[in-house]
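=== Structure Prediction Worksheet ===
Name of assembly: unnamed complex
Input type: mixed (protein and possibly other molecules)
Chain count: two
Listed entries:
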Amino acid sequence: MAKIHVNTTINGAPTEFLCDANQTLLEVLRDNLGLTGSKEGCGSGDCGACSVTINGRLVCSCLVLAPEAEGVKIDTIEGMADGDKLHPLQKKFIEMAALQCGICTPGFLVASRALLEKNPSPTETEVRYWLAGNLCRCTGYDKIVTAVLDVAAEMRESAR
Amino acid sequence: MSEIQYAAAKSIKDAVKLMAAAKGKAKILAGGTDLLVQMKSGLQAPGVIVDVKRIPEMVSIAEKKGSFTIGAATPAAVIGEHKKLKKMWPGVVEAINLIGSTQVQGRASAGGNLCNASPAADSVPALVAAGCVVNSQGPKGKRKVAVEKFNAGPGRTTLKPGEIVVSLTLPARPKNSSDAYLRLIPRTEMDIAVVGCGVSLTMKGDTVVDARVGLGAVAPTVLLVDKAAKALKGSKLDSKALDAAAAACAAACKPIDDKRGTIRYRTKIAGVLLKRAAAIARDRINGIEHKSH
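=== Predicted Assembly ===
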């Protein structure tokens, strides 16, 4: 069976890959392209560990077929830091220890960035509902929510 | 090696052709939030996956003389961002926006929620209350069907071989109309309805002149409860009318016992949700906002 040739853009870089019709985007990111920052938690869209954005829209990459990537813009956790310069959310997660084992962290960061791009001043309730699809089994939600709210405030301050 | 094929349809005609050619072995890929999970668990093994998201008509919302037509594969997040639609049909939009997480909202569609044919689908009771018409197309042409008649049972639709759902049309509505959807779940988010209830009202002053009620998760398919609507019509939503409508909802229930709720509990909750949803729809007509969350 012939592989499907896909042309896409990942973290701003034109990228091409070959995949099977039923491979997920997550599988291709991790296994074909070596972008292992996106994690597979549940594989069924419940845990958010595989969160990426497609054309700016937050999705679970485990629920996207790889051939669907044709012609779109994908952003993953690997594109979040600018070289060695961490994104403010990444810095804050470290500073506030908003993680324990770290498996859920890339998903939380990608989802939080998508939130702040859409809503620069979310309430705590809005942060909690937005991140309801990201599960942390080490029970670190409070620190994560506080970190996101702190970064939102700092980004608003520096944008002044 | 998998024998599965992926095809991105360029037009509705193209999608219908691909479906017909696969002779029942093809599945439509809209948001994929059900299909991919079902494929992984072995419940579905399509030979051809027909992606319809490259067809503009299927991923957009069109307004014509006050009536809205929502492309069947339009992501829930896009529907939630449509201000005019949200203003006219807040209950339909809140129901669609209750499906899954933010990530799922980025992909899941109302057409997919309908075709997955779960009795507990969140969007369907609100669409039933709204009087939505399902527009489908197949090898024999186009067809329209009332949304409450679309599903045949859990996981089963009335689509004929090769037919696909193209869009959902919400009718133009008179002034002083609004709607609401409520579901009961034991959590605050990310769960499947124990009972779901959609109510659409048109009022003149404080009197209900038109009403429709949709009930989910209490029967093999989502129900249009005419008797509940009848009890509301002509009333001022006083307790006597609401009690009669709630009793009509309870009488319409044919639920199952399962881990989410018992028959008795579901039957009782149906009427409770109806009363609350009717109150929200009335508030909205009176300009009082209700946020789903």
